[in-house]
Amino acid sequence: MRIVSGMRPTGKLHLGHYFGVIKNWLNLQDKEECFFFVADWHALTNKYKDTSDLKENTYQLVIDWISCGIDPSKSTIFVQSAIKEHAELSLLLGMLTPKSWLELNPSYKDLKFNLFFQYVRDFLLGKSIKVEEDTLRQIVHDSFYHKREVDFEYLEKGLVDLSIDANLVKEIVFNLKEGDIGKDIDTFGFFGYPVLMAADILIYKAEAVPVGEDQLPHIEISRELARRFNHLYKPVFVEPKALLTESPKLLGIDGRKMSKSYGNTIALSETEEELNKKVLSMKTDTQRIKKSIPGRPEVCNVYTYHNYFTDSQTVKDIYQKCTTAEIGCIECKKILAENLNRFLNPIREKRKELEKDRQFLDKVILEGNEKAREVASKTMKEVRESMGVMF
Prior knowledge:
two-stranded parallel ribbon, 5 strands, Rossmann fold, 3-stranded parallel beta sheet, mainly alpha, Tyrosyl-Transfer RNA Synthetase, 17 helices
């Protein structure tokens, strides 16, 4: 079975990426024909204003992949922009993509919602106004989704009901209405990126794509475009199926979703010193304000991490000692830091080797590009013949 999957080069990978994507890729590469690509064109959809680190981030992404065990001798590793056929197929598929398919795709609105929410949250934090994050998210969510357009009156009322000063609320709403928040994704490139994503998949006649549940709409557009093309012209494309991957349960060090935008990640490239500092800062059971109080491991983020990085017998011991107040949070965190460092050490060592050997990285990328281009060019020959565009 042929597998295609990609990641945007937006910086070094973290533990959430490892358990959400890379771990699954490692299993697939031993059983299937895998094409893994750096989606640098997709990175431009909302990062087009500053591309100064795009090339370096591409290298860093490939370094992280190989350091984690993605093997260039087993998997084809390549860079999206090196295969110009992706752009050609995206253009041709765009000709037959109904605008409504893109308007109904949830990703555009979801990202805009997140930008609005982050602005409101950061504005309030900047004014030293504390609001329960889930409550705030719900208010912004409801104002964003219960009508076709953003209901700013609903948002204003919801914020006032939280006892936030009315003048500050008006400032927030004005900035959301008239400011630049979300304008960076009001572009043709972002609106049409599901078509480019479909081209990324269909051009390799991928039979399956490993995705999280939130990406299912993109796979469905790919399937619909394959069906539409095959019906209008001649059968060329395979309808890819989604391989659902389990979402990692690891939260960020502050207890929120692990995200670079929150600054709460643990990178695969963290030094031992950096990692120890981050683990010691992790949030634990908020009700356990001193060691003598029995803990509740089931609500503790550190305990969740232990289930990933600590052997099962030690995990049982920690549970027993935490619930009987025999072990404190600092000691518990030190055990986690030791085990996390043990997990990351091989990745760190491999990264150090690869950082010094750009020649090897260039060789991997160029060879992968050639393999990908060979497949993509054959598919495009079929596409052109099928559509009658031969010149």
